[in-house]
Structures are given as structure tokens and as C-alpha cells.
Amino acid sequence: MIDKEHLRDKEVAFRIHSVKKIVHGTVRNVEHDGFWIVAPELLVELRGEGWTAMVGQAQNPVLFVPTASLEFLIASDQ
Q1: At residue 52, does pLDDT exceed 60?
Q2: Measuring CA to CA, which residue among 42, 43, 33 is closest to residue 69?
Q3: What pLDDT does residue 38 have?
């Protein structure tokens, strides 16, 4: 398996299956099956799709993005 731990606290660009635009964010934590990412752009997209009740009240939300839902994820190697 590929070690993803080096992506913690890195700026990333990614796209998930349900959102057609590329989203930018920061990886806050890494788990075996996905990433915890701070991504304000993705929150705007989710609110536009009717998720306001779930994510609208959260203070500084961090989103879990399952690896299986990623089309791609780009990070700097530095």
C-alpha cells in the first residue's frame, strides 16, 4: 500500500466523483481509507446541493474525503 502520511498539512488540489470542479484544500489528517481536508470551496459546493442543514452550522468544518471517491489528488513533492 502507498503511504499517504506525507500528505498531512500539505496543500492539495483534488476532484471527487460528485463534484465536477477541481477543489483546493489542506490535508489535516490521513486515515487508511481517506483524508480529512479543510476545503472551503467544497463546502460552498455542498451547500449549493442542499447540504446547508448539515454543514451550515459547523465551525471550521473538516471534511472526510474517502480515497474511493477521489478522481485525482495533486500535491507538491516539496
Answers
A1: no
A2: 33
A3: 94
